[in-house]
Amino acid sequence: MKNLIFVLCCLSVLPCHAEGLPDLGDVSQAELSPQQEREIGEQSMVEIRADKSYLDDSEINDYLNQVGYQLVANSNEPGQEFNFFALNDNTINAFALPGGFIGVNSGLILTTQSESELASVLSHEIAHVTQHHLARMVSGQKIDTLASMAAIAVAILAARSNPDAAQAAIIGVQAGSIQRQLNFTRTHEQEADRIGLATLQKAGFDTRAMPAFFERMQKATRLQEGNMPSYLRTHPITSERIADIANRVQQLPYHLVADNLNYHLVRAKLNALQKSPQERVTFFKGALGEQKFGNQIAQRYGLALALLRSGQAELAAQEFAPLQKQVSQNPIIATLAGQIRRADKTDKKLTEFYRTATQNFPQHRALFYDYAELLLQDKRFEDALKLLNEQILTHPDDPSLYELQARTFMALGRPQQEHHALAYAYVLQGNLYGAIDQLELAKRMGKDFYELSAIESELKQFREVAAAHKKNKKQ
User: Fold this and answer.
1) What is the pLDDT of residue 255?
2) What is the pLDDT of residue 177?
3) Looking at 37, 62, 193, 403, which residue is catalytic?
4) From 125, 319, 403, 458, the catalytic residue
5) Distance between terminal CA atoms of the chain?
6) Which of 85, 120, 128, 77 is nearest to 106 (CA)?
7) What value does the mean pLDDT take over residues 186-200?
8) What's the domain range around 283?
């Protein structure tokens, strides 16, 4: 099983080195290194992943990463590592953490009216990272550990979204003064606009989308009378900024860009996950009936998904049938097709369907989750284990794969490996102490000498990290 040194680096308050975990000293006295920035971001993500708003949906997050990396490849730091993820939060907001972690609220994705508008927000956030804006502000504080910096980074994000939460979010520091010091300056925002716009153009998106989105956000401020969208708190949009972007766009060649179908499908999926399934069924039926707004393929996809969620599998299949004729090669459509077919207990060709679908879309994790579930259901445990081992080699930081692997080991009567796999899942979800408990259980059930040796080594490392966390909290 793959060693989780990289996970320990994510959780540790100190950087991982081959010869131990040396003290960094006062990291605020100098510019943060790229490694330190990444560690601050990783530690911040431990808290974010543990939050109930974190949207653990591989289709949505994979799509954000596809768009994000299209932009990153055309940024001024194409070699920078990034991770894009969604939060199930209706407020309109997006944010960047040091080290390349960029979060997007579902409310913002649903508010955008084109893929280029979404890309314009991501390109702006990418520029904040590549210009090291937040990292420079965090490093300017009198803080002596990376863990404390990470805590402040997360707290600032919470404070910007909900200023009243600042005092509770930041423990042991002057929340108000930190908040004021870490707000992005006008210069930061203008620089992120300028660099983000250049990235947007190079990546082949519609540059007009950036001023269009900002104008709509500014208009929303006037209409909502004080109930300002969170995005405007994190990134104050002035008329001067909009005018500057608009002037720059006018100097660029006009470039009409069609939306990728996955943009519409992801928005439909987010919409289908809102409120109750029956409410969403009514919504999508109305949208399809009026045919006045939205992408009709995506609306039908949303209706089929909402029907499936509401337990109406036969109706979902009926609504989905014409969709398959329209769209033959799309991984999100294929995933829903498989889920609808799985609801039909009499389908004799389901295994063949998943074998073909995973071959056609080898990077689409949602299909592999469902395929593994099917193999477990059919008691084909060795086949499931082989499939999951291959996927873990490709996606070693995916906790869902380890959870499925643990279930497979349990079915095979291999408790040591079951608890070992769960330890990997827990640590990737930020549950360090749960991971230690699972390793303890795996150790007590040890039979395989080589795996027992790995477990003991990991236990030692995990306990060192836990002790460092405990010590840091007392400071």
Assistant:
1) 82
2) 42
3) 193
4) 125
5) 36
6) 85
7) 91
8) 268-474
